[in-house]
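Reviewer comment 2.1 asked that we show a complete input and output for one of the modelled complexes. We chose the 7TS case, as it is the one discussed in the main text.
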Amino acid sequence: MVAKADINVESIRKDFPILQQEVNGRPLVYFDNAASSQKPLQVVQAIEDYYNNFHSNVHRGVHHLSQKATDAYEAARETVKDFINARSIKEVNFTKGTTEGINLVAHSFGRKFIQEGDEIVISTMEHHSNIVPWQMICEERGATLKVIPINEHGELLLDEFDQLLTEKTKLIALVYVSNSLGTINPVEYIIEKAHEIGAKVLLDAAQAAPHQKIDVQELDCDFLALSAHKMMGPTGMGILYGKETLLEQMLPYQGGGEMIKEVTFEKTTYNELPFKFEAGTPNIAGGIALKATIDYIHSIGWDFIEKQEADLLQYATEQISQISGIRIVGTAEKKAGVLSFLLGDHHPYDVGVILDQLGIAVRTGHHCCQPLMNRLGIEGTCRASFAFYNTTEEVDRLIEGIQRAQKMLG
Ligand code: 7TS
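Response of the prediction step:
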């Protein structure tokens, strides 16, 4: 492993063989990191090592392989606990991703704590996975969904947020970093205000976790959901953090093996946290790979990650602003490495296809934020999203690509 002082993009890119390929005859430029980021060798090797050498089901076996798999899987939970600074492993629930974490809270918290007439608050810039589960539970419980509005830059209107809070507000579910706009929301303010009136806060940290250190105790959020695959880790693996006192009171999300203490046909008692929320055989390889992911992030260091991504965003924003007819969508003061844009009146899809022909991967469309696009009066955007393995030379390729698209589309 490279010593921290020697960390640079060239050395990091050697850990990502997938980046060293050509697409349509050009070196790949991968700017679709907000959808899913690439995996370093260390993570892939952890999966291979597990399946080749000690695969077995966890928590159930007395035999050697099962114990080894269980130890590795539970070591991952310890690593995650430290990574987000949870108080105990009881607060670390493994899920298949952010979507499942939010659904778990909607279902289990919602059924326990949301009554008819209660209110749940979300924001205009939520991903569908932080809208639909709340609509479903509101419908079921007879509760109301309220939405924090935004300004033209893609920032929350905090005065209006203050007005939305009432004694009926039970939960605020908010995206920490917007996947479409890049906005970093003032979650500390939201959490403080929510707690003043006794409401709980869930943070959707899908886009925050890859880019910055998360400290759940410092944030004092009540729940936080994230996906491993957006932070260089495996797909099908995520974390739901919840405060122990709340998780203890909540009902299980799914029933089955693993989540029980004792079952009779008359009555079932539930397992302790965190197993209460983990029915069935889990994603063992995913857990083990997540530990390797976090170890990898620490080997690079947050200082490098944050600086590299901030530099890329700044450079890309400066360069793209010089192209005539470009509209940047999402110009918040505090932004993460997401650059959404429109090129004149051209459909984002057409621009995306031309960029792909030039070997540049961006995402086009509504990015699972249709209500946000409606608010902005657009159908969608082209979105370049950066990771710490990206380079300014790749940004130059994007800029050239957009200029080429402009010529081709007229
Ligand atoms: N929340 C946010 C803010 C997201 O960006 C995404 C995925 C999710 C939740 C859902 O995560 P999952 O891992 O459970 O699917 N966002 C995107 C995106 O921007 N493009 O593709 C997926």
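The chain has two domains: 4-35+301-409, 45-298. We note this here for comparison with the apo prediction described in Section 3.2.
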